[in-house]
Design brief:
about 10% helix
Length: about 400
């Protein structure tokens, strides 16, 4: 596994699933954080760009060695994304300073003006609702004093505290959206390329995202530079994507960087309008078990850190997608927000045209599935896109 920290240098545009056609729509929305589709495209394009600087991108993708590693328009080859998260480093540190990961707060954590409230599964009888009879209800551990909202983002230590220790995060382990980014509106107008004049009726507005770099709370040491942390790896063989009798073997970070020919740092483009960002390869950091969210492999709760595309709505069509995976029992409760539509744009090579990708209704990041017995997380919890970061899940606990 090789870890990249991607630091944007200008405002970003991450389009939603809503159409934005000239003359039909005049406002383009943006989402945050970017979807796995966006991040995998950016990382694979950066790898291809740095593969051989003497060739064009079209020529590079004629190289069978590169296609075997990162795939092409028809597949992902041996390329894997094993983790997607936000990241931050202290502004007072050097550019190669340590980076802390941030994760979406589990949806069973809500907060009012003064405190964080945690919801637990609880069987309740004599209640009439559209929830299946064999499912439990989510019950707060204390009464709310005001309207509830999502708890925001958690540091890695905070997520470990919530999932493993069954506790609430400390205040310093919670990060709000306003600390990470802000929205900016941009106004534009369609142009006639032949006459270089504006086109009537094509005034539009775009909402951009600017990651915050110069926050000022109490002192300079509290300022952070925000970006994205992506863990990429390579499967041992391209055929391993089709194996059903054993889990994949992934290469070490040194082997990954060497085979992908990726430098220690460089430039990458992100999202709509190909905005610039700076990436660097993070050196291996050894964390204690109490600080690393990935140490716990089994538990009675499954937390999604990225969206999951499931064939049966909020649940997978097959609860045992690989023969080597242990089948998951039926959950007793689930906390899920409304579905997140994720599509994308398939660019036609050599032109500015293309076509829309299939739009999928995904279970959003932060969703949690509760079980009455321990379950093991041995693969991404998704029926689509497990190679590129969909359905990245971590096990946790919700009861003693």
């Amino acid at each position: 596994m090789m870890r990249l920290f991607i630091e944007p240098t200008e405002p970003l545009l991450f389009r939603t699933g809503r159409p934005f056609n000239a003359g039909e729509n005049n406002f383009a929305e943006t989402i945050f954080p970017p979807t796995p589709e966006t991040m995998q495209g950016a990382v694979r394009a950066a790898i291809a760009t740095h593969w051989d600087r003497t060739k064009t991108i079209a020529q590079v993708f004629e190289d069978p060695e590169l296609v075997e590693l990162i795939g092409n328009r028809k597949g992902y080859g041996r390329f894997r994304i094993t983790s997607l998260a936000l990241g931050r480093r202290k502004n007072s540190d050097s550019e190669d300073g340590p980076v802390e990961r941030l994760f979406p707060s589990p949806l069973y954590l809500q907060k009012d003006r003064k405190k964080v409230i945690r919801f637990y599964p609880k069987p309740i009888t004599e209640v009439r609702s559209d929830i299946p009879e064999d499912m439990w209800y989510l019950w707060p551990d204390e009464e709310a004093e005001d309207k509830l909202e999502n708890a925001g983002w958690l540091t890695e230590r905070g997520l470990v505290r919530v999932l493993r220790d069954k506790e609430k995060p400390f205040d310093e382990e919670i990060v709000s959206n306003r600390e990470i980014f802000e929205y900016e509106s941009r106004l534009g107008i369609g142009m006639n390329n032949e006459t270089k004049t504006t086109r009537e009726g094509l005034l539009y507005q775009v909402r951009m995202v600017r990651m915050k770099h110069d926050l000022d709370f109490t002192n300079r040491d509290n300022d952070f530079v925000y970006g994205f942390v992506v863990d990429i790896s390579l499967a041992g063989t391209e055929e391993s994507a089709c194996l059903t009798d054993s889990p994949e073997t992934l290469l070490s970070d040194e082997q990954v960087q060497k085979q992908l020919r990726l430098p220690d740092s460089g430039w990458i483009t992100l999202g709509g309008e190909r905005r610039a960002a700076y990436f660097r390869v993070l050196k291996s950091v050894t964390l204690s078990a109490s600080e690393n969210v990935e140490q716990l492999k089994a538990g009675r709760a499954v937390y999604l850190s990225t969206p999951a595309a499931l064939d049966d709505g909020w649940k997978p069509l097959n609860w045992q997608p690989k023969k080597w995976s242990k089948p998951l029992p039926k959950p007793i409760a689930v906390t899920i927000d409304r579905y997140q539509p994720i599509g994308g744009w398939l660019l036609a090579p050599g032109t500015a045209g293309g076509e829309n990708k299939i739009m999928r209704r995904c279970v959003p990041a932060g969703s949690v599935y509760f079980f009455n017995e321990p379950v093991a997380i041995e693969r991404p919890f998704t029926d689509y896109g497990w190679q590129i970061g969909y359905g990245i899940a971590y096990a946790g606990e919700w009861k003693s």
